[in-house]
Amino acid sequence: MRAYCCRYNEHTFSCIRLASWCPRRRLPPPKPLHLGVSILNIVLYVCKGIKLELRQYTKTQEGEESPINEEVSIWPQIKFVKCPIKTSLGVLGKKWTLLIIRDIGFLKINRFNRILGSIQGLTPRVLSMRLKELEKEGFVECAKENRSPMMVQWRLTEKGKDTLPILMQLAAFGSKWYSDVVFEDKKPRRLNEIFPQPEAREIIRGLA
């Protein structure tokens, strides 16, 4: 019995104690595991998977429809040094900034105190900081009128006006997906319904 168990251990590469097989029960010893057969089955299974992937790739290259759950990645064809979205959000992504541009560009609220009163929760200190940042980055400019008392007004530059289509797209997104919060009747609306003015249509055409 000892010699038999030693031979069995050599075939299965496992450690089986002598007490695991009792001759009194007259049970047959466990069958040895053939590692070569198991590895062969694994290799065949992997090869079948690779063959299936190659078939799907070939069909896609030949113009046939790709699987429904397959998503197409959109990668830029020109290499970026820095992501343009991340770079743009360096200033525009700060709190209150887009609302300040909204007031100056859309609502024509261009004086400090009026902007402060229009945006609830905005403090004079933060408004002053944001206006200075926008002026430094070239989004807005300060226009002073020489009269007593001196009047200071803010207006968008050409760079600042290029942000208006972004705000218009945000308005379209909010009107579609947050209509229950935006509108009293909770019904989604399109931009043409919300902004019928000719000036707004010019900005909407820029989105196409």
Describe this structure in words.
This protein is mostly helical. Among the domains are: 84-161, Arc Repressor Mutant, subunit A; 164-205, no CATH class. It has helices at 2-12, 35-61, 84-92, 97-105, 112-118, 124-137, 158-161, 164-177, 179-182, 191-194, 198-205, and strands at 140-145, 151-156. The protein has a two-stranded antiparallel ribbon with strand order 1-2. A hairpin with a 5-residue loop joins strand 1 and strand 2. The radius of gyration is 36 Å and the shape is elongated. The termini are far apart.
Note poorly predicted spans: 1-19
Per the CATH scheme, the topology name of the domain at 84-161 is: Arc Repressor Mutant, subunit A
- Our Rg estimate from Cα atoms comes to 36 Å
- Label the overall shape: elongated
Given the helix and strand composition, which structural class is it?
mainly alpha
Total strands: the figure is 2
Largest sheet: 2 strands, antiparallel
- The first-level CATH class of the domain at 84-161 is given as Mainly Alpha
Q: Round the mean pLDDT to the nearest integer and report it.
A: 80
Provide the succession of SSEs. Answer: HHHHHHEEHHHHH
